[in-house]
């Protein structure tokens, strides 16, 4: 038994941290959010060249052929630096293609997602924001051997940066009669838009589909039988977001601990007072525990498929609670400086609220854990 | 125990209510032209400065009348009473209590008439909760003081006309005894203001500044109170109604909005109002808001009897902080990912009022004396536990 | 407006405290719980002579003709001293008779409840412990102009001390088709038993009814129309229990504050550390707030009937949270001494758990507050 | 990262599992005669003292084997490993590390064979969390010490055969340096034991005492370690497996019982398992129990690699306290008024296990180093915050 990372993984962590600190420091975030892309295409290209965009893509399709645990190392670092690039979106699109696509489909799309020449995202939700099969409402109309889609997918991450979308749609009345198809951003009838977000470092928006054709060879797997693949996608999404949250929550906690050591009030550092010290200890406990769960979920994705649902739900649930608490208390334990634009505490706070609902909040996952026990 | 009003108090409540019904349009119909007109009308009724003595131009309202007026104004969602909030709440009362006749004559009327805009110079870069440690120096030179130093988190300084400035005039005295208060025009040479943007950049409450004092010369006649009396001025407060009824009514409005949001929301794919956890939170908010109202009325009763504990307000301050944070959190949770949208676009629910709430609670929770400071006050001054 | 007590009320408080401190100190509780009555009949007699058992009973029926606010003053003191006598049970039985009984019924029973010669209790719950009309299941069978009852009422306070019970039973199928009747302990088919409780200072048990006749003149009000009276009884019960909780929670908090001042560890009183000081401040805030709500509920019972439901629910909800937290933290903030038999902290802890479910816990009342808004 | 066992470890797990399947009857079939037989069998397998070196009669189990053994025993709801809990967990390891050959030969075998019953003499009336302030005096007189003083909260003292006693041998040294450890037979003249009953009088865990020492003469050869080495002995601990897997499995058993209770309960007139608030709490318990398990495995990994942080265990200790308190609270809430019944009567649900839980958590939560102490340890030693 070994609950630790390999030397290669530690190396990856070190390189990622170094690159992100240099190429994408917090001080650049304000400038980046004003660009059309919302992130730096140069840095994205660099990540592609390093092979990091295709970490989990099989080598046969241009990827590094590594596992989720490796991706989690990288995501923890992008979370730490509040990296604004579409790494989660792209990784989930690639993972779903690798999971549910046939050889031709993987050959067609994966290499571009792995080398960074194209960006992928996933479009799951529409009218209702819930993570049960019946929440997906967008209905595909038969069109020869393909389908036609008209409607709006909501809460799509990086909608305007993405070149292609893995879209979930309904092809029957039974709750689980769902399908997955690939829609390209440039295809007729496709338009994407993002809206300003509270977390200005992340983009979110809608994918509008006006009579968009999904040809038979763009449908992943058998039509009407995609729910298991969608559920795996949800678990990967929950784990990936949790890994990013782990990095940013740790950064927020580190910042606050350092402030508590440095800031002198009433003649001593405020970190001497139990009113500051004890909440920090509690947050450390919560975060270390969420860390254990996130790492285990990554391991389960690679090695223990039957464990994934529970592992991912536990990880996202506790990580969401830890991140949300740390985000808020990082503000409260600082003074007024916490909510000035120049100081990063407010960025972590906003990020913690942004990531909370993605792929299900703590309430959803605690509830799901009981369902997984048949309760 | 009696929660009914006397006939005189009932008459006053009716007077206020009738006036508001006749003169105050609903929030949506209030345009730019409305505010100056409104202030003129309520100034004529002496409701601006209603708690101040009549001889300085105030309303001379009794404590109960103040309570009734604030209660009715908040219920009618009336705008603030007067344009110079800082002048009316901090500077005016201090000048009434500590000012010379000349200072009163000069400053009080312009505060009441909305001709002044005051800001307060308290916090400094190394001085947060421990306010008495402030370092901004004022050295007496003949008939004036030479001020050097820096203030931070100075709300409104970028358009204030005057600053209510706390300075250290005696570096050798114990820290509480060496502080004095100066009333300084912001256009005095040597004052420089730099904006500090907050996290809701451009939005509500974005009015923080740093203020630098570089050999600023202030005539000694602009000192309020005696030299060294600054800490007493900071701690003092004129006898005015302290029930916190305005905050209570504001929370009640928020709760109504939140119930309305909950009725439109889902949790885990089911109506949010069928979720026991959401129901419990909402019930708890309602209960704590009512507790604040009643705590305020108990405090008011003691104030009327003349035995109000000076730390009593800390109890409702903690409720206020908790409610601001928890209600905005629940509202964001109810919205799901839509909570991430910001601004005035179509994707933003309820015109973004909850996002605004999530960005603006820190100004109250931290700016108003942090919860940790309030807890120390309660533990030490009300429960008698030893100081740290 | 005056949110304070009258001089008479303050006098009552002072007298009650003095009498209870002398006649019923904490040190006697262990001995009393071993007696058949579970409380001291002598002290009960004394309370009767002082007129305190009939505080809210109209003067015409032998009572003091005072209000709920006066009773709350007394209950706060009995809560403070963990008084084991059946004051809440007796007061609720008397209040229901005064509320729903006719002149003859009041004349028949109230004087004895007011002077202490007989003790009353109420028996509401049976199979289900919920506080909505449909939870009452015991069904009355028509018998001439009266009714016959067979079944078990559960969670009856002071079942073996009581001489008569106000019993709720069902006389129709509609959820609210309920009746109230008086059953005397000595009547044929009536038997009561109590079980050992965690809170050894309070008795709780069952009232067993085997074909017990309730004559027409023992039915309070019109048969089938008692729900409004039952709901008022529930509100009075919630308020009365909350008033007792207020007294005992304050005593537990006082004990803990004093311990924090006296107990020296690491060179200073533990009350100097914010890890002790801040929880105590939070509990003080919660308790003072519950205090406001309890007093207001008492005032509403006397003066503002339309306000009672909301006022009682708010009071019981916050008081239950405050009491439960204080009960638990009084243990945690003390050392090992807290859970020794000789030290009263454990008595307050047990009492806080005992009173939590009575007349509805916090969850019930928060939920009810939304129902009262039509939600 | 790898959560699989090596073939050798798998083989050991199978060995344990097979043994338990063959030899351990289900809980209900275990009668009074069973325990001594059971201890004889597992002593023969060297599972009592499994982490101790073979040369003193221990099992010499590797860290991973210790983990596997504890995990399997807990899953099978096996009874405690050996009858002298204090001897096995505190006294034995200290004697192995600090004892003379004669002390080892005299005490270790009887601990392993269940012939000893130890108690520990740490706390004193004025000494709680600040253990190093202990005052019980031992004065050297020739070949022996004369002990005078008092201990309190001494578990098991009323039937212990020996006490692992911490005394002050040097009143002038800094408080951590003047403490020594004595191994004292309880029948030594001058020792008096008084019971202190706890709140679950007569029930589980009611084994507290005060122990008075009145001119108790203790031969110097019964001193463990050097004079003044007492604090080091208190702080030390033999290298044994620290994953906390036993507590984790115990919580899991509790959670199953709690889910079962919830399935039979109502909240506000509806099935408790349809109540979102109850579901959320149960899901949170499951999640934190699993986090404890994984935290323990991360700690074990670091222990195997030789870089375990000595304060690591505080993290799971806090979870342990929270879970004990919160799970018993929810269980009481789910039972409603039935939670008030105590003992073994028909009215008591689940044989009173939750009432017992509500009465017994203080012994762990307070007795095991209060949560506040654990938070200080985490903040100061892991986060590097300044000491108070």
Structural topology:
The complex is a heterotetramer, with 2 copies of chain A (375 residues) and 2 copies of chain B (388 residues).
Chain A: H1 7-23, H2 29-32, H3 41-49, H4 68-80, H5 87-100, H6 103-115, E1 120-123, E2 140-143, E3 146-157, E4 164-170, E5 178-184, E6 190-195, E7 204-214, E8 219-220, H7 227-262, E9 264-265, E10 268-269, H8 274-303, H9 308-333, H10 345-355, H11 362-372
Parallel strand pairs in A: 1-4
Antiparallel strand pairs in A: 2-3, 3-7, 4-5, 5-8, 6-7, 9-10
Chain B: H1 7-23, H2 34-44, H3 63-75, H4 85-98, H5 101-112, E1 118-121, E2 137-141, E3 144-152, E4 162-168, E5 179-185, E6 191-196, E7 208-219, E8 223-224, H6 230-235, H7 245-263, E9 266-267, E10 270-271, H8 276-305, H9 313-335, H10 353-367, H11 371-382
Parallel strand pairs in B: 1-4
Antiparallel strand pairs in B: 2-3, 3-7, 4-5, 5-8, 6-7, 9-10
Helix pairs in contact in B: 1-3, 3-7, 4-5, 7-8, 7-9, 8-9, 9-10, 9-11
What attributes characterize this protein structure?
heterotetramer, A: about 375 residues, alpha+beta, Butyryl-Coa Dehydrogenase, subunit A, domain 1, Butyryl-CoA Dehydrogenase, subunit A, domain 2, Butyryl-CoA Dehydrogenase, subunit A, domain 3, 3 domains, 4-stranded antiparallel β-sheet, 11 helices, 10 strands, B: about 400 residues, 4-stranded mixed β-sheet, about 15% strand
Entry summary:
Chain A has 375 residues and is an alpha+beta fold. Helix content of chain A is 49%, strand content 15%. The model of chain A has no long low-confidence stretch (mean pLDDT 97).
């Amino acid at each position: 038994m070994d609950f630790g990372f390999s030397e290669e993984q530690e190396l990856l962590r070190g390189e990622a941290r170094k690159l992100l600190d240099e190429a994408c420091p917090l001080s650049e975030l304000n400038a980046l959010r004003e660009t059309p892309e919302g992130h730096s295409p140069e840095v994205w290209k660099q990540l592609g060249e390093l092979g990091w965009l295709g970490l989990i893509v099989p080598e046969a399709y241009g990827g590094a052929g590594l596992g989720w645990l490796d991706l989690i190392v990288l995501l923890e670092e992008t979370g730490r630096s509040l990296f604004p690039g579409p790494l989660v979106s792209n990784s989930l699109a690639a993972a779903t293609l690798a999971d549910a696509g046939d050889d031709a489909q993987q050959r067609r799309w994966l290499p571009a997602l792995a080398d960074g020449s194209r960006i992928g995202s996933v479009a799951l939700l529409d009218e209702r924001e819930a993570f049960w099969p019946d929440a997906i409402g967008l209905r595909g109309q038969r069109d020869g051997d393909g389908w036609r889609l008209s409607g709006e997918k909501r809460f799509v991450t990086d909608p305007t940066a993405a070149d292609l979308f893995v879209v979930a749609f309904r092809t029957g009345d039974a709750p689980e009669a769902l399908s997955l198809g690939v829609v390209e951003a440039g295809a007729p009838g496709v338009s994407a838009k993002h809206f300003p977000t509270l977390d200005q470092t992340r983009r979110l928006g809608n994918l509008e589909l006006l009579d968009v054709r999904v040809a038979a060879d763009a449908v992943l797997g058998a039509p009407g039988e995609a729910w298991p693949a969608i559920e795996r996608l949800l678990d990967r999404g929950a784990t990936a977001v949790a890994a990013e949250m782990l990095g940013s929550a740790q950064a927020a906690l580190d910042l606050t601990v350092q402030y508590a050591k440095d800031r002198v009030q009433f003649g001593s550092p405020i970190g001497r007072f139990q009113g500051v010290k004890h909440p920090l200890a509690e947050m450390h406990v919560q975060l270390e525990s969420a860390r254990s769960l996130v790492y285990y979920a990554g391991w389960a994705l690679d090695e223990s498929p039957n464990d994934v649902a529970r592992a991912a739900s536990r990880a996202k649930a506790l990580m969401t609670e830890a991140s949300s608490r740390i985000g808020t208390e990082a503000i409260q334990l600082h003074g007024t400086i916490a909510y000035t634009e120049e100081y990063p505490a407010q960025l972590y706070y906003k990020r913690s609220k942004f990531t909370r609902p993605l792929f299900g909040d703590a309430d959803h996952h605690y509830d799901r854990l009981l369902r997984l026990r048949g309760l | 125990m009696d929660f009914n009003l006397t006939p005189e108090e009932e008459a006053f409540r009716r007077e206020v209510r009738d006036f508001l019904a006749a003169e105050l349009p609903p929030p949506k119909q209030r345009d730019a032209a409305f505010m100056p007109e409104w202030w003129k009308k309520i100034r004529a009724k002496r409701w601006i400065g209603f708690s101040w003595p009549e001889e300085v131009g105030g309303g001379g309202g009794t404590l109960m009348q103040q309570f009734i007026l604030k209660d009715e104004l908040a219920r009618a969602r009336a705008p603030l009473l007067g344009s110079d909030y800082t002048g009316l709440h901090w500077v005016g009362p201090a000048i009434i209590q500590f000012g010379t006749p000349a200072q009163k004559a000069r400053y009080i009327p312009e505060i009441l008439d909305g001709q002044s805009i005051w800001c307060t110079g308290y916090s400094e870069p190394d001085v947060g909760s421990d306010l008495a440690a402030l370092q901004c120096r004022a050295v007496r030179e003949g008939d004036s003081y030479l001020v050097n130093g820096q203030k931070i988190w100075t709300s409104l300084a970028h358009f204030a006309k005057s600053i209510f400035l706390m300075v250290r005039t005696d570096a050798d005295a114990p820290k509480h005894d060496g502080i004095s208060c100066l009333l300084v025009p912001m256009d005095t040479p040597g004052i420089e203001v730099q904006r500090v943007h907050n996290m809701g950049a451009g939005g509500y409450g974005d009015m923080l500044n740093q203020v630098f004092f570089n050999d600023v010369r202030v005539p000694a006649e602009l000192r309020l109170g005696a030299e060294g009396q600054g800490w007493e001025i900071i701690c003092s407060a004129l006898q005015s109604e302290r029930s916190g009824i305005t905050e209570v009514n504001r929370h009640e409005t928020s709760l109504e909005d939140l119930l309305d949001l909950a009725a439109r929301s889902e949790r885990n794919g089911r109506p949010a109002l069928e979720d026991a956890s959401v129901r419990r939170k909402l019930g708890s908010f309602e209960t704590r808001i009512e507790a604040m109202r009643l705590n305020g009325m108990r405090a008011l009763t003691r104030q009327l009897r003349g035995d109000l504990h000076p730390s009593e307000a800390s109890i409702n301050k903690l409720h206020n902080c908790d409610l601001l944070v928890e209600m905005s959190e629940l509202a964001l949770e109810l919205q799901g990912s839509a909570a991430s949208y910001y601004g005035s676009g179509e994707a933003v629910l309820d015109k973004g009022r909850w996002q605004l709430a999530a960005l603006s609670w820190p100004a109250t929770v931290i700016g108003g004396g942090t919860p940790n400071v309030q807890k120390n006050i309660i533990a030490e001054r009300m429960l008698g536990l030893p100081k740290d």
